[in-house]
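Trying the structure run again after the queue cleared.
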Amino acid sequence: MPRKGENIYKRKDGRWEGRYIKGRKDGKAHYGAVYARNYRDVKKKLDDAKKNLNQKSDRTLAGSMAELGNHWLESVSGTLKVSSVNKYDDLLRCYILPKFGEIEFSEITNQNVIDFASSLLSSGGAKQQGLAPSTVAEIMSAMNSIRVYALKRDLTVSFSPECVNIKQEQKEIRVFSAEEQANLLTYLQENMDPIALGIVVCFFTGIRIGELCALTWDDFSLTDGKMQVHKTMQRIRVDGLKERKTAVQIFAPKSVCSIRTIPLPKAILGLLKKYHTPGAFLLTCEQDRFVEPRTMQNRFKRILASCDISDANFHAIRHTFATRCIELGFDVKSLSEILGHASVSITMNRYVHPTMALKSKNMNRLSGLFTVR
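Done. Tokens:
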């Protein structure tokens, strides 16, 4: 398993190998590699190789979307997680380059971009059934990043993705009712194991599924009643490896704010102490075996079915946690920090979903202002 969220691996011969994108041809990435006896040295070699490649790219920038887009992705790959690089690579390869790849970048107009976005929405995708507005928005965002990259290098740009207004429908947020949550917690207590324990921890801390899967017992301080969140787990595509197409990686969370210490409710401390296994993963109580997010998601859905609770993604636990906290009178700043958000507005807009009962309770507070005569 890689030590970091990069293409760095320890080989069977004991050496460390770092891989990086040297270039692209016909939409396919071509990789270079550096080697060293330890992680620190191979990381330095990899950073130097990427830096030299970026400097060379800036000196040899050409004018087509394909050339400029590939140069842009190579320039940012050293600062992004592998999963983000993979996402942008897919957006380029599957959507942007097939449409604009051979066209001179300076000749792409606002009307071209408007027509492109319209076609993606109406007939994009493998089945030509149209892409989701959120996907089209991501494609436009990638095009804008390439545009900014070109402007910083004094290249001629004739379009702006801001000319496209993509309306995204607000998805219905799944929050477990108080009754559903009580039934689920009862089932988990009656069928307690490391997986059930992990779900309980999420209901009382609101951590993300990747953060849960990466948790080890060394992240807990049960005497102080605290838990540290400083890593996450994700399965990502790993290009350039012949023996596998994807790999599970553990790396730092999505933002600095996601690195946090969470106080644990006293109600679950006794349960945690029963399973405490130093050095092991929380979800397996074993040092060399983990449960990846996709597997955890499937197990959670099976538990919901066993409880006769309608289907929901694991992330619904996080929404439920935030909603219950607001109902119990948490101050929003504390809740925001517990969830690992950069600002209170993110917490309020994305994760706080007042129930009808709470709305009714708040509205009834107005009754004191009116007396029937």
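DSSP finds 14 helices and eight strands in the chain. Worth checking whether this holds up in the mutant runs.
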